[in-house]
Amino acid sequence: MAIQESGESGFTERDFYLSEFRGRTVAIALRSGCGQGPGGEAALEGLGGVLDELVANATRVVLLSPERELLAKFLGCAAIELASADWAAELWKAVREDGKSGLVLPGGAAFAAACHDASQRLGFAKLVWVDDPPLIRGPDAKAASYVDLEGLNRLLGADDLSPERRAFLKEIRAMIDAGLPAVNVCSLGAVREELFTYAGAGTLFTREGYTVVRDLALHEFDAAVHLMGRGVAEGFLLERSAEQKDHVLAHTFGVFVEDRYLAGIGALLPHSGSPPMAEIVSLYTVTRFVGEGVGGHLLRFAADRARGAGLETVFACTTSTTVEKFFLRHGFSVVEAGALPASKWRDYPDARRSQVRCLALETAGVAGGGL
Length: 371
Description:
- The protein is α/β, with parallel strands linked by helices.
- The protein folds into two domains: 13-208, Acetylglutamate kinase-like (Carbamate kinase), CATH 3.40.1160.10; 212-366, Aminopeptidase (3-Layer(aba) Sandwich).
- The protein contains 13 helices and 15 strands.
- The chain has an eight-stranded mixed β-sheet, with helices on both faces. Strands 9-10-11-12-13-15-14 form a seven-stranded mixed β-sheet, sandwiched between helices.
- The radius of gyration is 23 Å and the shape is elongated.
- Residues 1-9 have low confidence and may be disordered.
């Protein structure tokens, strides 16, 4: 997926992730033979560009590999030897001066365990494991974009898993159990897309699923505006004026994995009337997390918030059959436009109103974990 910009602010997906990485340490694990296949040289050059972007972003980068020459290619100098008594301090000095450094680890079957040990010792914010095909696949044989520990345990329970793959996945689990926030697995040529786009290009491993649904922090507003723009471009969301966007943004909340990874957004707009209602708008799921239940978390949060404010009904409007089916699956019912507050239709485009489908849900039915 190409990196897209919001025409309004110039904000990109890359900006969002660079903001997350700034001031943190990201490790990239390169196994023996990395980049030796067809297109490998171009992929290595692409990785070099990613490293430059991260360093320019004040992100500390540590490369892990058993190949000294490969590390030197990216560093311009010799990497740190794990056998050195003071290797951690040497690595810190190199990263402090150049923004990046490398650590020579044992190769072969010992490489994954060595990456685990280094991650536990140095406390990386993220580890990117460069793993050319085959990538991680779920039970349906499709590439798994996101896997939490529960899903990882299911993968490990598969009977047809090779001993090498099982050992690799066990090391990933051990890294996450030891406190590493995330492990990304992707091919060499896909590191940029995996790190800097909402869709990703590999598999993101984290400890838990959707641990937090909350209001957006100020630094997360850019990402929300960008996602709203994508939803409009894809035909799922209504185009709004700048003033209307500000109103929606003030009421926007998000689903976050590990309270770090934005998985989706939504907003709840109050409407006056008798009885007063609230409208769910700008519901959008980040590509990587589509099909992972993000929408249900957003709807439940919206309904709970509306009920807490004394509102008995939430509603939504859409021109998309797909979106309509989504709301119907979560307990909403089709209602006439006239059943909604008059304020909903103020300055509403006539052409769209003739096509829009309206759905509503009684918030009392959500209490106790409905939806």
